[in-house]
Amino acid sequence: MRALVAAVLILFSLAAVTPAIAQEACSCKGCGCKGGPGWRGPEGFCVSQAKLAEVCGSPPGTPCKQEAAARVCFGKQSALTGPTANTEPR
Predict the structure, then answer these.
(1) Which tens digits make up the pLDDT trace of 72-82?
(2) Taking the CB of residue 36, how many other CB atoms lie within 10 A of it?
(3) How far apart are CA 50 and CA 81, in angstroms?
């Protein structure tokens, strides 16, 4: 009976730790890696889709910088971004 209780406790502790390990394995740096439009505004912050035309113009350009950063998990690009996305800011 003790072995069963110990096994259940170990399984619960592994289930609690696994998401934290998986999250640490993914890196997301730069505008666009979390699904945003991928533009950095003149103040240095990422611009949301709602304010893209207001801050960067239409089409986006001069005052903003396009980054389109990719989210990288375990050394591979995440499915959230396309294969042509840049992994480093321009």
Answers:
(1) 777 665 554 44
(2) 17
(3) 20
| Single-letter amino acid code for the residue at 45 | F
User: pLDDT tens digits for 44-66?
Assistant: 999 999 999 999 988 888 899 99
Return the domain boundaries, the chain.
Answer: 27-77
Query: Pairing state of beta strands 39-40 and 65-66?
Result: antiparallel
Cα-Cα-Cα-Cα torsion 76, 70, 30, 65, nearest 10 degrees, comes to 150
72-73 β-sheet, strand order: 26-27, 72-73, 76-77
- Strand runs (DSSP E) across 1-90, as ranges? 26-27, 39-40, 65-66, 72-73, 76-77
